[in-house]
Specification:
- It is built from four helices and no strands.
- By secondary structure, the chain is an all-alpha fold.
- The protein is elongated and about 60 Å long.
- 0% of the residues are buried.
- The chain binds flavin-adenine dinucleotide.
- Flavin-adenine dinucleotide (FAD) binds next to α2 and α3.
Length: 79
């Protein structure tokens, strides 16, 4: 298994490297782990921050739209 952190070590000057990926190029972080996790948590974090801030919290009139938050996450990992 070769991950993106191995790419630098493989790319020595004068050598050619070919990486064959069994799934989507980019690995776990881009499509299943870091990026989708952070994209999903961001909506909650922004809402919580707004709820702590006088002047902004009064504008928060509803709960988190989980469908929209999931759609946002999917948008990050579908490109
Ligand atoms: C929920 C979650 C959240 C995370 N959040 C963060 C974060 O916020 N920050 C952070 O720094 N890290 C985070 N991580 C860890 C991070 O995702 C991994 O450390 C990172 O993806 C490892 O990179 P890698 O390139 O070594 O391996 P991977 O990204 O796993 O890449 C390995 C690749 O090899 C492919 N492969 C495997 N076997 C074969 C085979 N036999 N033939 C061909 N291809 C194969 C796989 O399909 C995969 O694409 C998180 C992990 C999880 C699960």
């Amino acid at each position: 298994m070769v991950g993106k952190y191995d790419a630098d070590r493989l790319a020595h000057p004068g050598l050619s490297t070919a990486v064959i990926e069994q799934d989507r190029g980019g690995g776990e972080c881009s499509y299943w782990a870091c990026i989708p996790t952070k994209a999903l948590l961001r909506s909650t974090a922004a809402l919580r921050a707004a709820c702590r801030l006088p002047g902004a919290r009064e504008a928060v009139t509803d709960a988190l739209d989980s469908t929209a938050a999931l759609r946002r996450r999917d948008g990050f990992v579908s490109r």
